[in-house]
Amino acid sequence: MTTTEPLIEVEDVGKTYGSVIALRDVSTVVNPGEVTCVLGDNGAGKSTLIKILAGVHQHDSGTFSFEGRPARFASPREALDAGIATVYQDLAVVPLMSVWRNFFLGSEPRITWGPFAMLDRRRGRTVAREALAEMGIDLRDVEQPVGTLSGGERQCVAIARAVHFGAKVLILDEPTAALGVKQAGVVLRYVAQARDRGLGVVLITHNPHHAYPVGNRFLLLKRGRSLGSYEKSKITLAELTQQMAGGAELEALEHELRAAQT
């Protein structure tokens, strides 16, 4: 675990939409070579937080620092240029386009002759294949449509793309939500690889069993507020699961139901 300066630090960050409080007084850090897991059910504020980090929205209160400097990104492109890459649940891939074209997606290598330019397909295929192989992703053919890959493989291509293009922070929005146990395990393996390469990873999930094996820090959100931020050494999987499940509320409900039966 590294002791260098955090890549991202948010303190008491808040966001409102008119009279609706989407996020209030949320604090956490993202360190290089670590995974910060953001957990919560639907409506907990996870999406609002990552949209602030990714430059989709700007915070209304609190402080947001990137590499030790105050940050307020005006757009996702500005955040990406700074080194924050976000992989959303829908992946933003073109299903009928080849794997290697999706790997570059707007940054394809080109061959130029004076004022003319054309795609350098050979170099594109080679670079994509090598970059994927470095992440341990062995695809039979990078010319195959990305839509023919499994959900886990598509997530892994998106992760490898962010690593290749020099991301410092990788934000993953529910990467295992629609996957089976085996495919989720594959994705989590590549999350760990990105972490081990020195990236700061933000893993958004509602599943503590996916978060705990790879996470270094856990931020729990509920209705836009923080239930706490814990380092892994300070919380067990059972405690994390109970917090996520609303342990106190469930105990109160159980007591109420038991009383109703007597």
Automatic annotation (TrEMBL):
Keyword Hydrolase: no
Pfam family, one: ABC_tran
Descriptive protein name: Monosaccharide ABC transporter ATP-binding protein (CUT2 family)
Keywords: ATP-binding, Nucleotide-binding
Keyword ATP-binding: yes
Lineage: Bacteria, Bacillati, Actinomycetota, Actinomycetes, Pseudonocardiales
CDD domains in the cross-refs: ABC_Carb_Monos_I
ABC transporter domain boundaries: 8-248
Taxonomy, superkingdom: Bacteria
SUPFAM superfamilies in the record: P-loop containing nucleoside triphosphate hydrolases
MF-aspect GO terms: ATP binding; ATP hydrolysis activity
